[in-house]
Write a structure and sequence with these properties.
Helices cover about 15% and strands about 35% of the residues. It is α+β, with helices and mostly antiparallel strands.
C-alpha cells in the first residue's frame, strides 16, 4: 500500500506516490517522549514508476512515540465574546470516526498487525500536514 498525493519541491521535482520505506525504533533520551519510531516515507514520480522498480526521488522522515500517535498539525485558540480563550481548534482534517491516540500510535499498530506499516498510512494522513488529503493506493496483490 502507498499514498497518492502530488508534492512539488521549489526546484520542480515532483512526486505523486509515497510508500513507507523504513521504520526504525528508538529508545528514550533523558527527558524525551519515550520509546517510539522514525518513519521514512519515499516519494516516487508515480505509482507505475515505483512498481517498475524506479528509485525514490523524495524522502521525508517523521517521528511517532509508541504510546500514542503524535499530532503534527497546529491548533488555534478559540475566544468567546469576552475575549477569554474558550477552547482550541485543530488546523487540519477531522479525525476519522473511532480515532484513538493510543490505538493509532505505534503500540496500536503493533498490537493489531504483524506488519507495523499497515497502520502507519492512517497516522500519516491524519497527523502529518504534508500528507493531508492523500488517498490510499493499493499495489497488485495487496489486500
Amino acid at each position: 500500500m502507498g499514498l497518492d498525493i502530488n508534492k512539488t519541491l521549489p526546484d520542480g521535482t515532483s512526486a505523486g506516490y509515497w510508500k513507507v520505506g523504513h521504520v526504525e525504533s528508538w529508545t528514550p533520551a533523558p527527558s524525551s517522549e519515550g520509546f517510539g519510531c522514525n518513519l521514512w516515507v519515499d516519494g516516487y514520480a508515480t505509482h507505475a514508476y515505483r512498481e517498475a522498480g524506479a528509485n525514490s526521488i523524495m524522502n521525508q522522515m517523521y517521528s511517532c512515540p509508541y504510546t500514542g500517535a503524535k499530532d503534527l498539525f497546529q491548533y488555534m485558540d478559540l475566544t468567546g465574546v469576552s475575549g477569554e480563550v474558550t477552547g482550541t481548534k485543530r488546523l487540519g482534517p477531522d479525525f476519522p470516526a473511532g480515532w484513538d491516540w493510543r490505538d493509532n500510535g505505534v503500540s496500536g499498530w503493533m498490537e493489531s498487525s504483524d506488519d507495523i506499516r499497515s497502520g502507519i498510512y492512517d497516522w500519516i494522513k491524519v497527523c502529518v500536514p504534508y500528507f493531508s488529503g492523500a488517498t490510499d493506493q493499493w499495489t497488485v496483490g495487496e489486500a
